[in-house]
């Protein structure tokens, strides 16, 4: 009798367990999942009055299907609200969620009120700055050491210098290009690239009556920072010039747009409007796209390349912006916006930030969705933190903008000469103030 009772109880327990297990399984299948990684990790997530938090800042929450308001908050940080839609059996991944501090940490990195311009060399973790008298100095962010007055020129660079590890290539205007060595102990005097190039080209087989000796663009090959070669674009050709051995090679003959220098390749638009690639390694082969851009004014065409891929933004002389994947040369470029002056890829290269007069647009390459926002800024905005934020300058103040909430957040005031840089590798912002160069950290 006792055995029969035990068997009946066991059967009841198994039946109830199966029933509840089935019910839980059915309920779980009818639920969705919200995932998010938050910064700072102490951030609290609140959904429908219920709070979630952990020490790692990683959330994986099961929710019933429906619309929710997710609020991320933390003391001394700006709260962030996101409207979310949960679907049964699906995971909504918000990826990284950043809260911006109400007050950014500020540090005077170089206290010098006479600084006029500065440039960031990310690869070498250094800053180059120029004071009002034209004296150049270098500051190492790792060692905190400075070498002052390694070069002097009363003229400011006409465009941002191109840096390799121990050299700077500077255009002082009116075809006055110089190679400056850092530190000065390497070679005490700069080399006139203009004079050396004119001399070698005039004596080469490429010199004809109408050959231009005017340098429009010059850059070190990006693949080898120790290289003594320089890529030079003139009005009628592109050359590879070895300034130490006085050797020159013509890579392309004809007018062209500004080239983009990446890896062992350069990319540019030919006079015909064709997008071309030239390899600097081995044989100098040219690959062409099957599409012709508008070559109305080659000097106004901009090419922006993704760092991790052969994704390109091409902005033609009329302000039309195209997306081009050069891996698939048979695909036609996609017209993504008009009235554009500048653009850039997000850090994961899944979105494109485009800037026109008084507005910005974000184009998502995966979802093919475009977000437009009217915004006043002094110079082109740049990506910040992830593919949902940017920073921009308005008058003399820096702001961060969150595309998800469409809100601006004040960062700093007193930016001098519109001079600021963002180093994404360490999440630092550097800007020029009346007190010198300031470092901001989140």
Indicate the structural class: mainly beta
Q: Outline, from the CA principal axes?
A: globular
Structure annotation, total helices: 2
Beta strand %: over 45%
- How many E strands? 39
How far apart, in Å, are the first and last alpha carbons?
73 Å
Q: Could you give a short account of the major beta sheet? A: 4 strands, antiparallel
What is the radius of gyration computed over CA atoms, rounded to a whole number of angstroms?
28 Å
Task: List its traits.
2 helices, mainly beta, four-stranded antiparallel beta sheet, single chain, 442 residues
Q: Can you tell me about this structure?
A:
This protein is mainly β. Among the domains are: 1-28; 157-249, no CATH class. It contains two helices and 39 strands.
Secondary structure blueprint with pairings:
Elements: H1 2-29, E1 32-39, E2 44-47, E3 50-52, E4 58-63, E5 66-73, E6 80-86, E7 91-98, E8 105-111, E9 115-121, E10 126-131, E11 135-140, E12 146-152, E13 162-163, E14 167-171, E15 177-181, E16 191-192, H2 193-202, E17 217-219, E18 229-233, E19 237-242, E20 247-253, E21 260-262, E22 265-269, E23 274-279, E24 286-292, E25 302-305, E26 311-315, E27 321-325, E28 334-337, E29 340-345, E30 351-356, E31 359-364, E32 370-374, E33 382-384, E34 386-394, E35 397-402, E36 407-413, E37 420-423, E38 428-433, E39 436-441
Parallel strand pairs: 1-7
Antiparallel strand pairs: 1-4, 2-3, 2-5, 5-6, 8-39, 9-10, 10-11, 11-12, 13-14, 14-15, 15-16, 17-18, 18-19, 19-20, 21-22, 22-23, 23-24, 25-26, 26-27, 27-28, 29-30, 30-31, 31-32, 33-34, 34-35, 35-36, 37-38, 38-39
